[in-house]
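Milestone 3.1: sequence recovery, worked example.
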């Protein structure tokens, strides 16, 4: 019997070797039959080998092991503490430091809320400091969405639906929702893919929908639309998105509802009216400062503003994207926040618009830094995925997520236990906000209103440290209207409320 098995094995190897020699697709296999397969096997295992055996605690990407461990520990309700000091090189150029005070404050026990709702909003919403960022059903499994929304309900924070529409998984648990509308207008689209005002008004009236967000662009791939292959458009996804089952769905890179800054501002006002006065805003990955200033000019001339703006950083997100876009297109979150914050301050509009920050927010220190850079609140996507079991396998786009979070494979998705994972989401959010409040107290402030850019330092070379107040321009209220400073003057003059192009 053993001889037969050995004969079969050797025969199979010989057949494979012959196939390698005659095939024309892989040069490596033609020159190294059989042995060449070892290279492909090692390449397939490379990400796991890198993550588990090679990378240090602090230098992994997109999220290092230290950050992932903090999220896992807080989600489980265990202490996220490490002994023996930092492993980071604090003298490395680019290192950032928050400044502690010689007179720290008591840690407040009541997490502050951020009132979302400008002068044109009749149904404002009080946003938590940390919320679930945009992730669609379809990108995430039904169980993952259920766990996130249940956790949001338990913890009293908001859950952004992503642009894939309002599903039963979003609505069933009862958590507060930010309904995101993208270029595909899923859930409120006509048969030819345009915006359907009737459907929008009907769904925006749902009690769980607290705010509505128009997605202009996202951090990982600003300026790119999306393609959902027909094979993935099952009956459930087709119903949620309002598209034909089995037919490929294309989300264009641009919106049909506006083509100029003025039209954008007017459409946002229309959305707020259709939503019965609920807060309305938009999300973008910031690019041209001149284009954003054009939107600000349109707000001034139309005398209407969005209630919030979510700045998505180019650090990327849960959606798969071309590597060239992920690595090279769009401003990182910090620069994007400071651009939007200063533009609104300089045009005298900052008190009417709240700013959300989305992009690699995972810890309390991340949250505090984003507030210092101009945000009022933060959203987290990948960190929330960690809380429900994500192991950063980076297979989100393959439908083969090993833990059932980013997949529509029912067998894989069953791994997400909704009762357990929703508790983890709530614990993680609560502990992270608590950590941010502890850091603020150590800095000598009672809450976000006491923070300023002088409290965040950056090492610019081995011998020099500067504060954000020194490194960046910070406009005063109405400064652009009175006399634009040199660094902003040319963009302000060129900004046109009736065109986006530079």
């Amino acid at each position: 019997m053993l001889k037969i098995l050995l004969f079969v094995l050797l025969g199979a190897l010989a057949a494979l070797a012959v196939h390698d020699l005659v095939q024309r697709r892989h040069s490596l296999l033609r020159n190294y039959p059989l042995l060449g397969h070892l290279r492909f096997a090692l390449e397939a295992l490379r990400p796991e080998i890198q993550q588990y055996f090679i990378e240090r605690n602090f230098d992994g990407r997109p999220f290092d092991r230290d950050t992932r461990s903090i999220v896992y520990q807080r989600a489980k309700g265990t202490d996220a503490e490490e002994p023996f000091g930092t492993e980071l090189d604090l003298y490395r150029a680019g290192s950032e430091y928050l400044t502690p005070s010689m007179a720290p404050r008591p840690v407040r026990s009541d997490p502050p809320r951020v009132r979302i709702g400008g002068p044109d909003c009749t149904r404002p919403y009080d946003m938590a400091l940390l919320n679930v960022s945009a992730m669609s059903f379809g990108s995430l499994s039904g169980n993952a969405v259920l766990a996130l929304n249940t956790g949001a309900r338990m913890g009293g924070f908001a859950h952004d639906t992503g642009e894939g529409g309002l599903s039963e998984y979003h609505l069933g648990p009862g958590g507060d929702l930010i309904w995101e509308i993208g270029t595909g207008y899923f859930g409120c689209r006509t048969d030819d893919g345009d915006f359907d005002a009737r459907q929008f008004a009907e769904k925006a009236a749902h009690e769980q929908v607290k705010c509505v967000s128009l997605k202009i662009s996202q951090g990982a791939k600003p300026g790119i639309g999306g393609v959902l292959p027909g094979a993935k458009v099952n009956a459930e996804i087709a119903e949620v998105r309002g598209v034909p089952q089995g037919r490929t769905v294309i989300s264009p890179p641009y919106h049909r509802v506006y083509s100029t800054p003025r039209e954008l501002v007017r459409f946002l006002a229309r959305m707020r009216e259709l939503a019965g006065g609920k807060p309305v805003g938009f999300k973008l990955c910031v690019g041209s400062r001149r284009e954003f200033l054009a939107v600000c000019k349109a707000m001034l001339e139309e005398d209407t503003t969005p209630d919030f703006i979510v700045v998505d950083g180019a650090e990327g997100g849960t959606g798969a994207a071309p590597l060239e876009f992920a690595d090279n297109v769009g401003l990182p979150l910090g620069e994007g926040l400071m651009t939007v914050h200063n533009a609104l301050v300089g045009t005298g509009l900052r008190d009417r618009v709240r700013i959300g920050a989305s992009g690699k927010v995972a810890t309390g220190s991340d949250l505090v830094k984003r507030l210092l850079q101009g945000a009022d609140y933060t959203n987290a996507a990948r960190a929330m995925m960690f809380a429900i079991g994500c192991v950063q396998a980076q297979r989100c786009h393959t439908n083969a997520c090993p833990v059932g979070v980013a997949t529509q494979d029912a067998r894989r998705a069953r791994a997400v236990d909704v009762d357990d994972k929703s508790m983890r989401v709530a614990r993680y959010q609560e502990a992270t906000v608590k950590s941010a409040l502890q850091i603020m107290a150590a800095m000598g402030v009672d809450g976000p209103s006491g923070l300023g850019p002088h409290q965040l330092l950056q090492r610019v070379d081995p011998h020099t440290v500067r504060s954000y107040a020194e490194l960046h321009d910070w406009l005063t209220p109405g400064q652009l209207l009175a006399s634009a400073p040199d660094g902003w003057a040319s963009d302000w003059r060129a900004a046109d409320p009736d065109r986006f192009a530079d």
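The chain has a mean pLDDT of 89. Residues 418-442 form the longest helix (25 residues).
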